[in-house]
Amino acid sequence: MGVGSTIVTYLVVPVTTATVLLLLMLKRSRKFQEVFSAHVFFPLVSPFFKSAFLGIRREIMQNLNNIESRDLELRLTDAIRVLEVGVGSGRNFDFVDRSIKYLAVDPNISVKAKFLDNQSKHSNVELESWILACGENMKDVPDDYVDAVVITHVLCSVLDARKVLGECKRVLVPGGKMLFMEHIGYPYNTWSLRLQRLVDPVWELLTCGCHLSRSTSNAIIESGFSELLLREVYLPIFPLLSRHIYGVATKSRS
């Protein structure tokens, strides 16, 4: 065996062993998935994707500027009440141009410290409550309560996207708006979709539940909002994440 082959062997064996052990630990422990995704995986990969999302984040978040609160007290100060599902570290704060009262919903306690640190740097964002919960069950939020819901890169990871969308619609005031951005699966019967499905089991472990191949657009279209503006775009990023939808869904006023 040559020197080159020996070096490769010494590198491949420990790397392969470490990878297998990591995947086994992720598969055995949901808590470990939450900590790993929040403090290792997403901080490592986010810098490679962040710039590609900036334009869409800015476009959808600007819709907050056109909303008038149904809460008279908030209206007097030109503020609105916003709920975000799956807040993470508060990645959308940089695109909020007005005063908001903010409800944060996330099932992962590991992100709370980073979120609070980021929120403290945005004086226009007043935290009303941080709710440790899944989007499928936001029972601590009253019906017809918030002027807007923000949900970005979340429906790919939830257990029941349709139930989350139902909860988003429930907590919105009549005429309230849901702002969304999601990556989705490629069209049916394409090689790209087959590849997404092949990678999905490992990707799901690394990202604490994210699915590359989910058809989220259908769930949004069928969720019963009275108005829907939905756009599709292919972003210049990792191909399996390239296909995105974004837009605004409006709850009926009646």
UniProtKB/TrEMBL annotation:
Keyword Manganese found: no
Iron-sulfur is among the record's keywords: no
Transmembrane regions listed in the UniProt entry = 6-26
Q: Which CDD domains match?
A: AdoMet_MTases
Keywords in alphabetical order: Membrane, Transmembrane, Transmembrane helix
Which is one GO molecular function term here? S-adenosylmethionine-dependent methyltransferase activity
- The Methyltransferase type domain is annotated at 83-180
Q: What is this protein called?
A: Methyltransferase type 11 domain-containing protein
Q: What is the lineage of its organism?
A: Eukaryota, Metazoa, Ecdysozoa, Arthropoda, Chelicerata
